[in-house]
Amino acid sequence: MLTHSTIEGLKSLRLPAMASGLLEQRSHPDYLELSFEDRLGLLVESELLQRSNRRLERVLKAAKLRSGAVIEDLDFSAARGLDKTTLRSLVDSPWVANHHQVMIVGPTGVGKTFVACAIANRAIRDGASALYVRVPRLLDDLSVARADGRLARMMTSLARVDVLILDDLLLRPHSDDQAADLLEVVEDRRGRPIIATSQLPVNHWHEGLGDPTVADAILDRLLERAHRIELSGASRRRSDATPRSKKSVAPTNG
Q1: What is the pLDDT of residues 108-128, one digit of tens each?
Q2: Where are the beta strands (DSSP E) in the chain?
Q3: Which of 13, 23, 44, 223, by CA, is between 20 and 30 Å from 34?
């Protein structure tokens, strides 16, 4: 009766892992050989692990990453131009806390989105929040939000997340209004990192960002303390389309 009351108490305190752990300890006599402190420590450890896993699941879902890529999945073959040492030095550093940016460029299909999502996934596992958006859709959504009165709320949401992934930046040249909206997004995030991907080399971004003054302001903020990753090679999507009899290649995005 006492054990049942304790378990119900743990559940009411929202400690379900400790409650399950206590039941497990009661059903396995081997636990009786441990001291009270050791058994309590195992219960606390179990609760902390479950909370950590729930938090990770919740933040990954909210991030809406286009790919479930992790750093360990990345292809570091020389043909892609992705350097393992450089990437490791980035993800193993406190780049989020230090407010660094990450710019990933390369032709279509070489895996820019895959790399961006892998870096963001690592940041989430290290305790950050993140959000993935495609820039063409984002600019359309900002325009609609302005018309129906949701703009301020949307901008606040974009500013609050720790890491914002801007995929397909400058997929097409931006109008002056679109560039102005993008500037507001970037400006509101000063002090919070952005991961941006683009098919255009960085030195061509200015000409696609509308008004030169606005373009200067956007690039000044995006390229401040920015890590640049330049990918190369043929589209991986075409490789994925080869007949099944040929060696398969892990799918990539971007």
Answers
A1: 989 999 999 999 999 999 999
A2: 101-105, 130-134, 163-167, 194-198, 226-230
A3: 13
